[in-house]
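Q: Given only this backbone (377 positions), what sequence would you predict?
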């Protein structure tokens, strides 16, 4: 298990892989322009007889312009191969490198089109079709997390840091609010660590939601405000389905969320948000150029949307910066529908190829939702 990493320019690096029985140090200095690839971190056997993860540290640069001052910020812990991480678990994001803390877990159905039907045969839950291909949904753990605001400026070009949005708490149906510094993280994205700092994560909700408790592990427990916020806002926060598919080494992951219904011009308008992560699993440098969406509504309409890039950007995916994540919204005048489509990517030689966006359902909940409560007082 990798035990030591160095952060330069506020980017965490660590290796999840270790082929030796003794504890290894992983020393990998990368700046924020390079991203984090755990396969590139080179483990060096220290042969020093370290007997526990608590004896190995990872480092962080101070928040200074030169970004070269290193300081210890915590101690790596063993990855959980079974079970889930608890509320209060500190972690580094294995893809985007930011520091965060777990608020609470979600259990979602993961529809992975990269898994063969035989490999998914043990799964009993729902199934969805992709053309003639039926895909089984396996239960998978995701987490609602807080992002350290010190890291947000460094990841803003690769990952939106406002992953939770909700409709306004009044009659203006066009108003939409976003909660900054929240994210949804898959179990395998988490590199856990611990810290003796009583406020290791900088976020305006940290001390409202969590408190230091030296008698337990993790060292942070949920306050009543977090439990109340989770209960009241559960319908807008709940993650239920995740869809994933890979085309020519570009993996697309989609997470849809139902946001609620509003009245507009004597009709009902149903709103969803969807979070998308694009990951380059290969070595070739590619750039997203166009999006092509097909949106089907239960009312019988089929809409086609084409455009340059996504959210005003045309991200480059390389081995150094392999991932890009964003959120968007869609509305229908029907309680359900479907979305699917393609992203057009360009290679360095000027050639293009299409990457499939896995089809996913837009389903409204069966019950009416009250307005979200937003931040706790």
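A: Predicted residues:
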């Amino acid at each position: 298990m990798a035990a030591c990493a160095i952060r330069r320019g506020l980017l965490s690096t660590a290796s999840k892989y270790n082929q030796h029985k003794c504890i290894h140090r992983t020393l990998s200095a990368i700046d924020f322009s390079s991203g984090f690839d755990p396969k590139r971190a080179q483990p060096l056997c220290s042969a020093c007889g370290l007997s526990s993860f608590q004896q190995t540290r990872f480092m962080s640069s101070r928040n200074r312009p030169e970004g070269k001052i290193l300081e210890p910020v915590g101690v790596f812990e063993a990855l959980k191969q079974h079970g889930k991480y608890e509320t209060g678990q500190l972690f580094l994001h294995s893809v985007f490198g930011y520091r965060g803390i777990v608020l609470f877990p979600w259990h979602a159905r993961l529809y992975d089109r990269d898994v063969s039907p035989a490999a998914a045969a043990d799964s009993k839950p729902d199934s969805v079709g992709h053309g003639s291909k039926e895909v089984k949904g396996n239960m998978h753990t995701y987490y609602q997390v807080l992002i350290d605001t010190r890291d947000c400026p460094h990841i803003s070009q690769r990952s939106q840091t406002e992953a939770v949005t909700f409709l306004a708490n009044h009659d203006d149906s066009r108003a939409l609010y976003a909660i900054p510094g929240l994210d949804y993280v898959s179990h395998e994205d988490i590199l856990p660590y611990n810290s003796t700092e009583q406020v290791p994560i900088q976020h305006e909700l940290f001390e409202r939601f969590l408190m230091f408790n030296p008698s337990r592990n993790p060292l942070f427990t949920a306050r009543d405000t977090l439990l109340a916020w989770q209960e009241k806002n559960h319908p807008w926060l709940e993650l239920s389905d995740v869809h994933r598919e890979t085309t020519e080494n570009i993996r697309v992951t989609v997470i849809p969320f139902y946001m609620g219904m509003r009245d507009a011009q004597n009709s009902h308008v149903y709103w969803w948000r969807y979070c998308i992560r694009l990951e380059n699993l290969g070595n070739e440098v590619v750039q997203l150029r166009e999006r092509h969406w097909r949106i089907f509504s239960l009312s019988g309409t089929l809409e086609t949307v084409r455009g340059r890039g996504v959210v005003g950007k045309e991200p480059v995916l390389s081995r150094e910066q392999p991932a890009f994540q964003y959120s968007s919204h869609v509305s229908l005048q029907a309680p359900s529908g479907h979305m699917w489509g393609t992203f057009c990517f360009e290679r360095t030689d000027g050639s293009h190829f299409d990457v499939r966006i896995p089809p996913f359902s837009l389903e409204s909940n069966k019950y009416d939702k009250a307005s979200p409560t937003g931040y706790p007082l």
